[in-house]
Amino acid sequence: MNHSQIKDILLRNNDVKKEYDDLKPIYEIQKEIILLRTQKGFSQKDLADRVGTKQSAISRLENGTYNPSILFLNKLARALDKECHISFK
Predict the structure, then answer these.
(1) For domain 3-79, which architecture applies?
(2) I need a labelling partner for 79 at 20 to 30 A (CA). Which of 6, 16, 21, 34 fits?
(3) Is this model's pTM higher than 0.90 or not?
(4) Contact partners, residue 63, CB within 8 Å, separation at least 6
């Protein structure tokens, strides 16, 4: 059984699906930050220096063990030459 098949089985459970859906925004943020960082050719340390934090903070954000504040996300956006926009749909 592969990852996709296991995921499909797990997501049939409504409780698991709800938790998975609740985490979607943070996963999207993580993916976007990693993509933008690598497109710029920045290491985690490079980005941390530009933001004014430690490399471990960027690592925790990217691996999902840190839930960033809006202020921190705004600093990241600026460091990546982007703007941070939050919306509710």
Answers:
(1) Orthogonal Bundle (1.10)
(2) 21
(3) no
(4) 30
